[in-house]
Amino acid sequence: MTKEQLGVSRRNFLKASGITAMGAFAVAGLTGCGQPKTASKETESAASTGPAFLQAPEPIVDFSETKEYDVVVVGAGESGLSAVHTALENGATVACVQNVNTAQTTGNMGAYLDIDANDEAALQACVSFINWKSDYRSDRHLVEVWARNSQEALTWWAEEAAAAGVESVRHDAVLPYNGYEIALHANTYFHVKGNHGAAALVIADSLAKAGAEFFYNTPCVQLYKEDDAVKGAICTDADGNNILFKATKGVILACGDYSSNDEMRDYYAPDTKGFARFVDFRDGSGLCAGIWAGAIMTPTTHTKMIHGEPANVRLEMPFLFLDRHGNRFMDETCCRMGYMNNFARKYLAEVGFEDSTAAKFFSIVPSNWESYYEEWKAASPYDISMYNGSNKVNPEAWISGETPEELAQNMIDYAAKNEWAMDLSVDAIVASIARYNELCALGRDEDFGKDAKYLAEINGGPYYAIPRGSNKLPAILGGLVVNENHQCLNESFEPIQGLFAVGNASGQFFGGVDYPMDIEGLSIGRAITSGYVCGGYVASL
Question: Is residue 372 part of a domain?
Fold first, then answer.
């Protein structure tokens, strides 16, 4: 789809995004994260007021080299690359600094709202839906920026990647909410080696050819100010030299979240303790630099993105769930994906938070499982699913047995083969299935109070066990507080001149305890869109 087909021209781009210029205020002292530092007396005296990463070290004042650009982007993931693109397109000179040796991102899908197929009421209903799923903690203006601009942004991303040989597959979806049928799409990369990261690599190459300068293995450790405004990023190279990247228009933090920084996780998201990290490069260093420049982090709650097993086994239907001991542990209709985090912590505690596989469980499914789908989907449209993107679950990837006893033994063998921290027995599993069938026959769940319409007996082989439960923590969605321009705010909620944040470095888009799975690919779609909008805005200053 071309930009002309989208009906959004470059000329009216900034207007369409609802972006306005705002005034700026001074920033606080500027320093860097994770660097050897000598604390001032003030810093030492303040150490008792919070964790060490909140205490600003002494500012760096000596530089081996100074480089000058209009825009400096910190981070070469999907939000950073999108910001680089629109900044270039709007005539800016751009540097992109990255803490690792390549452009880097994760995930499989990027969602956008079909701006042509939805009227204004449907668009607003989608914004309201996301706010509802975020426990009403979303900044509606930020969500609306995604809704109005995601189609253009995600179309650019898909076309740019495809031009270099990394083609996505479009996934269409309809979200029913408040009487509206909201048309959504997603670019999916399940079929691509490297998934969404493969697209990021070729897009980074394309942007470098277009004139952007990329500096890999060059982490941002501090921010630089002149006249009470952020005017650059201070980075270190592989030899430990300090390089000042001056920015005449602004610095855009696109550095992702802090999910691989244990100290920040313990402070902002203690309920992630024991979950395995997905990557190591989301170290929170750019966020620290922003905090030390006067920006504030989103107040709790920070939304946890905890995913389970691969798409081919991700069946979201409320059959019987059995924990690491072979016991039922919840009303299975509750909180799609929430059990990945909220029901797992006690099992992680049982192993001293040393083995994340203690959070694994099995979904026990009858042979006629598919016959329940349409009825259950109609009753609970946001919680029932047998698809991840366009990938339908595959029963051949499940564990099976002709009898409950055979199924139980195969479950035990599977857990042992995969080195899951489980304490299972055939007797416990068989007894749990038998008890559940008793409740189904009774038509009343005396153990957990599950709605009777979801009580389906597990009988008549073959019996299936689907390996489920938490794998790793890809991201924590709770970054710096920003306004609708993605300009960072200080503790007085005033904009900090020259400092912006996008993607997971910015907050207030999500707000619930758990990442909502109802709009598949929303996190990546939001990241691409926020960078796309912000890069053009900063370049226009």
Answer: yes
Contacts 24+ apart (CB under 8 A), 171-176: 171/109, 171/389, 171/390, 171/520, 171/521, 173/519, 173/520, 175/126, 175/129, 175/518, 175/519, 176/381
Q: What is the pTM of this model?
A: 0.89
**488 plus 364 within the same structural domain:** no
One domain, residues 313 and 453: yes
Q: Which residue has the tokens 């005449």?
A: 248
Q: Are residues 534 and 461 in the same domain?
A: no
Judgement on whether residues 201 and 63 belong to the same structural domain of the protein: yes
Q: In which residue are the tokens 């979801």 written?
A: 454
In a shared domain, residues 279 and 318: no
Within a domain: 46:
no
> Within a 13 Å sphere around the CA of 477, how many CA atoms are in the beta-carbon half?
23
Number of domains in the chain: 2
From 223, 251, 151, 139, select the one nearest 538 (Cα to Cα).
251
Domain of 368: which CATH number?
3.90.700.10
pLDDT tens, position by position, for the chain (541 residues)? 333 333 333 334 333 344 333 333 233 333 334 433 333 444 444 445 789 999 999 999 999 999 999 999 999 999 999 999 999 999 999 999 999 999 998 888 999 999 999 999 999 999 999 999 999 999 999 999 999 999 999 999 999 999 999 999 999 999 999 999 999 999 999 889 888 899 999 999 999 999 999 999 999 999 999 988 999 999 999 999 999 999 999 999 999 999 999 999 999 999 999 998 888 889 999 999 999 999 999 987 899 998 878 777 889 999 999 999 999 999 999 877 778 888 888 999 999 999 999 999 999 999 999 999 999 999 998 888 888 888 889 999 999 999 999 999 999 999 999 999 999 999 999 999 999 999 999 999 999 999 999 999 999 889 999 999 887 899 999 999 999 999 999 999 999 999 999 999 999 999 998 898 889 999 999 999 999 999 999 999 9
For residues 244 and 354, membership in a common domain is answered with no
Residues 223 and 360 grouped into a single domain: no
Identify the domain containing residue 72 by its residue range. Answer: 3-41+51-304+474-539
The one-letter amino acid code at 75 reads G
